[in-house]
Amino acid sequence: MPIKINKPTIIEAAGSKPKIIEEYFGRVNSDSNDVSIARMKSPAGWVEPGQRPEFDEYTVVLSGELNVKTEDENIIIVKAGEAILTKKSEWIQYSTPKEETEYIAICHPAFSPETVHRDE
After folding, report:
1. Which of 18, 19, 23, 104 has the most CB atoms around it within 10 Å of its CB?
2. pLDDT truncated to tens, each residue of the chain (120 aa)?
3. What is the DSSP letter of 117?
4. What is the phi/psi pair of residue 76, to 5°?
């Protein structure tokens, strides 16, 4: 039977400034360990700690631009209408230095604080 999600759950975000995470599917809102799907709204100047997650993350930028820093210090700029796939076990760091950015993040398996492995 189909499962309708009437509204997302707001999840506390890590990073240098307040960021809004609206989880539609995942461990919190739909009790799913298989996948998480969330809409993110990050303010200009937001930086998340680096991480080495145990999941693949598929990200589609809806507006603004997302910076993705890699372990070798390269920065990949993902603009509105573009997407990026980061693979599990890769070190990455997300930021939105220039402007407010909205994007959809899909994690497989589902995101959890225990499997993201953020830098201290």
Report:
1. 23
2. 998 999 999 998 999 999 999 999 999 999 999 999 999 999 999 999 999 999 999 999 999 999 999 999 999 999 999 999 999 999 999 999 999 999 999 999 999 999 999 998
3. -
4. -100, 125
Give the right CATH number for 9-116 from 1.20.1250.20, 3.40.50.1980, 3.40.30.10, 2.60.120.10: 2.60.120.10
Helix (H) or strand (E) segment spanning residue 60: strand 56-63
Greatest distance between any 2 Cα atoms in the chain:
46
Whether the CB-CB separation of 64 and 80 falls below 8 Å is answered with: yes
Give the DSSP H or E segment for 97.
none
